[in-house]
Amino acid sequence: MHEIVIRGGTLVTPEGLVDADLAIGDGRIVHIAPGLSGGTEEIDASGLHVLPGVVDAHVHFNEPGRTEWEGAATGSLALAAGGGTTFIDMPLNSTPCTVTAAEFERKRAALAAASITDFALWGGLVPGNRDDLGALAESGAIGFKAFMSDSGLPEFPRADDLTLFEGLQEAVRLGLPVAVHAESEEITAGLSARLLAAGRTGVRDFLASRPVAAEVEAIARATHLAGETGARLHLVHVSSGRGVAVAAEARARGVDVTIETCPHYLFFTTEDVERLGVVAKCAPPIRDARERDALWQAVADGTIDIIGSDHSPAPPALKSGEFFRAWGGIAGVQSTLSVLLDAGVHARGIALPRIAELLAATPAARFGLRQKGAIRVGADADLALVALHDTTTLAHPLHRHPMSPYRGSSFRGVVRRTLRRGESIIVDGAATARSKGHLITCSR
Known about the structure:
Number of domains: 2
Strand content: 15-25%
Shape: globular
Radius of gyration: 21 Å
Helix content: 25-40%
CATH class of the largest domain: Alpha Beta
Number of helices: 13
Strand order of the largest sheet: 3-2-7-17-18-19-20
Low-confidence stretches: none
Mean pLDDT: 97
CATH topology of the largest domain: TIM Barrel
Number of strands: 20
């Protein structure tokens, strides 16, 4: 007898769609075959597609220190409701930021006490902490995050070119990737100062302060430094087709670079930002329809490697008032899979195995989470059971503050159940977890 058998579903595996039962034992997938013998618990997945749980490589759950913005309890609940089973938390906006081993341990303990999903942690790369990177790696960091432009937090200063260059060298020694927010500080800061001095503080003014050229320039510089050092580079939240093209050219030259975009760049356009206001403000900003369509093409043809939510919420008081000065960040951790199913599978015909690759297999493989990310024997039983043709409207997001540009949107594709290491943690939108998630470290 198996502990759990999931019956009658269509499994989304690396080899394609498979109509088979799936058996779980000790939190792992132990058998995949039609007509498996009974389990102590049986889950009827008739008419459902069984996907690997989403591995969200880019969230800001802000714990400890800014849990009034978001916390692991509410953030992981929203992630699980959207089919997610693992997140990788960024080193900011928690306070203190995760730039030393002591801060890493503080964050690990806070997340382990609150999260219902498993998690991994990025360490920070900032001026002056190169000698801390080794201890962060020993603690379990899966890589290091740097900002090439102002992060918005003085305690997490941007990495100048020397900091980034030497950080990439140290990351090579440690065998870990470096993730970068790639926007030119010189361009964005200069344009912002000029516009604010002229009293221009509206939506279009903010968009003009962060042009695609700022992203393209920074990507070219980051990929050059990665090529010089032989580092593994990960470009987070690339917002434009032109940015993707520059990164892809570097990859063709032999640079080890992966490209991430976010669902909000695939779902919204600048017209939506004008309509929605500060709830849709982020950096890099949401672009026009031409750039959005170019991103979708890169998703379809395999150029984009990973899609992460970049969930970065803030209290309503900080997401209000003058657009230019309001906090920039999208609250969307619950909607990543929904966007990819509705606008990707249904609207554009992208295959489900490609969706699973973008949201689970590639982030797990890139960041060394070997037991995650795919439906295969021996992997953790991290699964999302989806009614592909049902429709849902996001009325009440489960993250801490209900503000989200996705609120009120309807999506085709509904998560009916999420399992983390074989335990059902969400069933029909309700939390059912009996245990907490734990830290996953990379296999180097």
